[in-house]
Specification:
Oligomer: single chain
Largest sheet: 6 strands, mixed
Distance between the termini: 89 Å
Shape: elongated
Number of helices: 7
């Protein structure tokens, strides 16, 4: 049966009734595809519109405002406590030590007894010196009475001695010159050998051989002159005691006077140590050579005291630290947890190498207020107070860069990265003084690690 679709459609319209069309599977798939593409296109349009209307995202930089501050420059270092006053005591006479009352490391005060001498031995030493003085006096008197004996022999030997002494001096000079010549030729010989100059080396060797032979002859002659000189001096000495010449008289007088001086010296030394050898100042005994029961020779070393009242810290300064440290600056010194005041008193004018091979300059900081808690030889921490810049424009140290034209900083000005050349001054541990180039109102970029060029729009963030 043939269906009239047109008629049915018209009838449907007329009756106001809607009839849903039945779609085939292929039509349904096409319809879903058209819907998906429409939604995607709408989303794309919305994304593009939103991007066009959204604000631009700018790179951010950490900033800090320039500030007014007082900048104090300090140098932190360490050193070793050492004394500024040190004395080594020597025995004023040869005598037996009855008791050594101190040991290494002991603390002593001014006036403390350090060494006690045996009183009987002191008395014996004084008596001996007195007898030697008397002997010298009577020997002088006896010699004066025999002054004319052997005068002729003395005169002859004195003349010979004068000639021989000159010959000895002349030959010694020639021997020294020959030895120096041989040494110099030896240096030339080594250089010639090292440089491969065989002919020159052979000539230098010949010169050395000839000079060596001459030296042997001169030394033999010198020995003969010295032997003759000794012989004549022996003759002179044997007659000198019995003749009263001007020189002989002076010599005997000198012997007598020396004996008298020694007697007085021993007497004074005995008086000095009769109650014990005492400390001249307070300090620490750092070395002891005296032994109880031992005999100390005159001028023999007894002990050493280093003051713990006049002390300093010995420090080493690098080149960069040296620029900040000057004599007269104040310092804070910490020793075993206790703080002391100090003053820079000395900076060496010559550098040395430390254990790492770096050049350092030594300095000393006097401790102004030492006390009994000071230990010699221990390490001390030191903070040296350097220059001070008051009410200075200051920026963080890390914000300052160095280029070919000097120091500069990055700032944010009207939302744009800009460069300002600056003149720097002193620095503390955190801040650097800006002498010129900034007025203190700028936003300082702490770190342009991204390498953004000048003129880049940025978003400043307080750091």
């Amino acid at each position: 049966m043939k269906i009239n679709w047109k008629k049915n459609k018209e009838e449907t319209i007329e009756t106001g009734k809607k009839e849903k069309k039945v779609l085939s599977p292929a039509e349904k798939k096409k319809r879903r595809k058209r819907i998906f593409m429409g939604v995607a296109a709408a989303c794309l349009v919305l994304f593009i519109v939103s991007r066009m209307m959204a604000p631009e995202v700018l790179p951010t930089v950490m900033v800090s405002a320039a500030q007014r501050a007082t900048i104090e420059q300090t140098v932190d270092t360490s050193g070793t406590i050492k004394t500024e006053v040190k004395k080594t005591y020597f025995s004023p006479l040869s005598a037996k030590v009855s008791e050594c009352k101190v040991a290494q490391g002991d603390a002593v005060a001014a006036g403390d007894v350090l060494i006690v001498y045996d009183p009987e031995d002191l008395k014996s030493r004084e008596s001996e010196a007195s007898l030697q003085n008397e002997e010298a006096y009577y020997t002088y008197q006896d010699t004066v009475g025999k002054s004319n004996a052997d005068a002729a022999e003395y005169s002859r030997s004195s003349h010979d001695i004068e000639i021989l002494e000159q010959q000895v001096e002349d030959w010694k000079a020639e021997v020294r010159a020959l030895k120096q010549y041989i040494t110099d030729m030896g240096c030339f010989l080594r250089e010639a050998v090292n440089d491969g100059h065989e002919h020159a080396a052979e000539e230098y060797q010949n010169d050395i051989d000839q000079a060596t032979n001459t030296l042997a002859v001169k030394e033999e002659e010198l020995a003969e002159f010295e032997s003759n000189l000794a012989e004549q001096k022996g003759i002179q000495n044997s007659t000198e005691d019995s003749m009263l010449t001007a020189n002989g008289k002076k010599q005997i007088e000198a012997t007598k006077e020396l004996a008298a001086l020694k007697a007085e010296k021993v007497k004074a030394a005995v008086a000095q140590v009769s109650e014990g050898l005492k400390a001249d100042f307070g300090g620490i005994v750092t070395d002891v050579k005296a032994v109880s029961g031992g005999v100390m020779e005159e001028s023999g070393e007894l002990l050493t005291i280093e003051s713990n009242e006049d002390v300093c810290v010995e420090i080493s300064l690098s080149k960069s630290e040296l620029e900040k440290v000057h004599e007269g600056q104040k310092a804070v010194i910490t020793v075993v947890g206790k703080e002391y005041e100090g003053t820079v008193t000395r900076i060496s004018k010559s550098a040395t190498k430390n254990e790492k091979g770096a050049s350092v300059v030594s300095g000393e900081i006097h401790i102004d207020n030492p006390d009994a808690d000071i230990f010699l030889g221990v390490e001390a921490k030191v903070k040296i107070q350097g220059a001070v810049a008051e009410d200075a424009i200051a920026v963080p140290i890390e914000a300052v860069n160095v280029g070919r034209e000097g120091s500069f900083v990055y700032i944010v000005e009207n939302g744009v990265l800009a460069v300002r050349n600056v003149e720097t001054g002193i620095a503390s541990t955190e801040l650097l003084e800006i002498k010129s180039g900034l007025d203190g109102s700028e936003q300082i970029v702490l770190n342009n690690s991204a390498g953004l060029p000048e003129g880049t729009p940025v978003t400043p963030v307080e750091g």
